[in-house]
Design brief:
179 residues; alpha/beta; 3-stranded parallel beta sheet; two-stranded antiparallel ribbon; elongated
Length: 179
């Protein structure tokens, strides 16, 4: 006896797909739920999540953006300043550990670090280094922007019907001092 002997043909690639005409392939995937255009969907993660968000918009689905650009910002500058790239301005979230960090901040489960990077009298958020391509004018401006994004992330995770997260192919780093 083996764990596979009682599975249906749809559980096996050769029987369900390889030995069939493409017109005869069916019943290989039965979703537990179906995303409808009316469902609020948020997308975060790697660049692939951006493509999913764009595909939802193109198909008139309710892709949620919780951190809206300032009125009058051009489409080009929206992209440059990371508005409507993901459902809020988190930047790429490549790993499960970074996603966990954002969730903990959004739910006030852990304190938000005060860490920042400085270069040429400009300030950068180490958790979203590409959000402001020219950096922030001050640490306070950077921290205010981070706090706004955390509030918008909270709205995304508490109001969305579906949360799409795509992993990236990158390493994960941990700060020894802050865990």
């Amino acid at each position: 006896m083996n764990p596979y002997q009682n599975l249906p043909d749809s559980a096996f690639w050769k029987l369900a797909v390889a030995n069939k005409s493409m017109f005869d392939i069916d019943n290989i995937w039965n979703p537990k739920s179906i995303i409808l255009p009316k469902h609020n969907v948020v997308t975060f993660g790697s660049c692939f999540a951006q493509h999913i968000g764009n595909a939802l918009i193109e198909r008139d689905f309710a892709w949620m953006s919780t951190e809206l650009p300032p009125p009058g910002l051009s489409k080009e500058n929206c992209k440059k300043f990371n508005y409507n790239v993901f459902s809020c301005r988190t930047g790429n979230i490549y790993t499960a550990s970074l996603l966990k960090q954002w969730v903990e901040w959004a739910l006030n489960a852990t304190p938000v670090p005060t860490e920042y990077w400085e270069q040429d009298s400009r300030f950068y958020d180490p958790f979203r280094p590409g959000i402001e391509p020219n950096g922030f004018a001050s640490v306070e401006e950077m921290q205010s922007s981070r706090e706004k994004t955390i509030k918008c992330f909270n709205k995304a995770i508490t109001e969305a019907d579906y949360f799409v997260f795509t992993l990236g192919l990158t390493e994960s780093w941990f700060n020894k001092q802050h865990g």
